Amino acid sequence: MRTTIRLADEFYEAVREHASHEGKTVTAYIEEALRAKLAAAAAPPEREPYKVVPFRGGRGPRPGIDLTNNAQLQDIMDGLE
Question: Which Pfam family, an example, fits this chain (predicted)?
């Protein structure tokens, strides 16, 4: 597709110089910049990886809780026991 954009003269000269330095046309340079901007906008923001901090100290589970009994653990978490 062909379109016209208006740029300030000094901005166009800077773009032309950068494009020439990279061995690209002004069109290719602008297209690459726009693709990068669109890709960055579409990408999810980077976040710190989740870190699990183990609990140290304490006395372990309540007396009478069997950590190998999934049904009992679910009942406890649901407040049924």
Answer: RHH_1
- Entry pTM: 0.53
Whether the predicted pLDDT of 36 surpasses 90: yes
Tokens matching residue 60: 């372990």
Return d(Cα 44, Cα 40) in angstroms, integer.
8
Q: Which residues touch 16 (CB under 8 Å, ≥6 apart)?
A: 26
The residue extents of the domains of the chain are 9-42
SS3 74: helix
Question: Quick one: CA torsion of 68, 72, 77, 78, rounded to 10 degrees?
Answer: 150
Mean pLDDT for all residues in the chain: 89
